[in-house]
Amino acid sequence: MTRSQSDPGADAVIPTQIKDRMLVDRRRRQIVDAAVRLFIEKGFHKTTTREIAGASGMSIGLLYEYVASKEDILYLVCEAIHAEVERGVSQAMEKAGGGRDVLAEMIRRYFLVCHRMSNHILLIYQESRALPPPWRKRVLDNEVKITGIFIDCIKRLMTEGVVPRKENPSVELMAHNITVLGHMWTFRRWFLSRHYSIEEYTRRQTRFILKGMAQT
Amino acid sequence: MTRSQSDPGADAVIPTQIKDRMLVDRRRRQIVDAAVRLFIEKGFHKTTTREIAGASGMSIGLLYEYVASKEDILYLVCEAIHAEVERGVSQAMEKAGGGRDVLAEMIRRYFLVCHRMSNHILLIYQESRALPPPWRKRVLDNEVKITGIFIDCIKRLMTEGVVPRKENPSVELMAHNITVLGHMWTFRRWFLSRHYSIEEYTRRQTRFILKGMAQT
DNA sequence: ATTATCTATAGATCTATAGATAATGC
DNA sequence: ATTATCTATAGATCTATAGATAATGC
Q: In the predicted model, is pLDDT for residue A169 greater than 80?
């Protein structure tokens, strides 16, 4: 995954006094891994910086050599999650192949990503609000970016004639719908999973989406 | 709206030493009104109990005569929002009438409720996590209850032959989809509203949903 | 010599309560 | 007399840093 100049990685944007770039990466990865686990378990606000330090095997002082604030950690966490979701979705799109049911296959693979990263996606819904506004904006932009992957795929399928042609606004809305119906599994899972397995959920929602997109 | 015995109102469940029932209601309404405003503006965790007291015209000591903790306030807020959404949705269903396009009309009215209560619905998505587990459960149950209104309506429309017959799991999933696509306007509004007005959003999504529900 | 890390704590903040005071109704 | 309200603060907690120490590389 390449990044444009206007979108440097999260790490690049958070300052540190530590000189060794590799070390910074490694330490921050430790911090993020520990923080993700704790945030999912107890939420951002109920997790203390000391706990994060402890869980990532550092002293509190050391932790603060790699981040300037607790919000920094949340931001790193959100970025890491997005990167992983984006990677998952991109892979899903590639693997979906090019047959007659590509779109169904894309949806299936995307929903599996949502299923696998359920807690992480939920975390972003619930805690990204705690970020300072400019960083929240970056996180929201990432959401759009993931929906953008679907937009590109659907447009490509339209040129290939696999999917009926639509005007742009329709395509975009469909992409948002697919994205959100995947997320729905994450934030209504406590209820939905009583009635449907992820496979059944996917099957039903795919049918729903494809019918909704069909030529009128 | 009547409440079953197993579901006493939120007020009934939070203890207080104050004897005057009416006063308790009034004061708690003051607290909730102020808290909703502040929570929407700055979030639950960044709002202090003193601010809530100030904004509702009470001393901090008095505030704590009507609630036992800050979480109590969040719970009252969530319940109040749900009550209003539920009222809005019920009204929407009634007013939708019984013509051939009832379902479209229901969706339209429901989406307008989501539009009007956008910030409130978002608040529940973002902050209900901070509730103690048993209360969080009550809040989630309320979500299901609202979806239940749609389930009942769709089933009724099926008996009346206005909508094609489906098995129960299909109906339930459609009801969840309608609910969530309304919510989508609240948590992607910052993006969607650049491209669609609420009316256009509703028109497009209604078409999508109805096609998706049509007989195969 | 420089870089990385640790310990100990300053400083800020916030929730919740105790104890005093004012208002109300008999 | 009882009920409602206010002021002042105890007590707990947590983020972030200063200053000391250990590790590393020349």
A: yes
Question: Nearest Cβ partner of B211 from A184, A192, A212?
Answer: A212
Alpha helices in chain A (DSSP H): 10-13, 21-42, 49-55, 60-66, 70-95, 102-116, 118-127, 133-159, 168-187, 189-195, 198-213
Nucleotides of C under 7 A from a protein CB: 3-9, 13-19
Interval B23-56: pLDDT, tens: 899 999 999 999 999 999 999 999 999 999 999 9
- Sequence-distant (6+) residues with CB within 8 A of A50 are A60
Distance CA B7, CA A95 (A): 49
pLDDT tens by residue, B57-95: 999 999 999 999 999 999 999 999 999 999 999 999 998
Q: Do B169 and A140 touch (CB under 8 A)?
A: no
CA B54 to C1' C25, whole Å: 29
Please spell the DSSP secondary structure of B80-91, one letter per residue. Answer: HHHHHHHHHHHH
Model pTM above 0.90: yes
Residue contact A208–B212, C-beta within 8 A: yes
Measure B174 CA to D16 C1' (Å): 50
Q: Does B97 touch chain A (CB under 8 A)?
A: no
pLDDT in the model for residue B7: 66
Tell me the nt nearest to A59, Cα to C1'. Answer: C6
For chain B, the first-to-last Cα distance in angstroms comes to: 38
CB proximity list for B129: less than 8 A, separation 6 or greater: A43, A126, B136
DSSP A63-105: HHHH-SSHHHHHHHHHHHHHHHHHHHHHHHHHHT-SSTTHHHH
- Asked if B159 has any chain A CB less than 8 Å from its own CB, the reply is no
Tell me which chain A residues have a C-beta less than 8 angstroms from the C-beta of B192: 176
- Could you tell me the sign of the dihedral formed by the alpha carbons of A15, A18, A23, A26, in that order? negative
Domains with residue ranges and CATH for chain B: 8-71 (1.10.10.60), 78-214 (1.10.357.10)
| B137 reaches A (C-beta below 8 A) | no
The one-letter amino acid code at A53 reads A
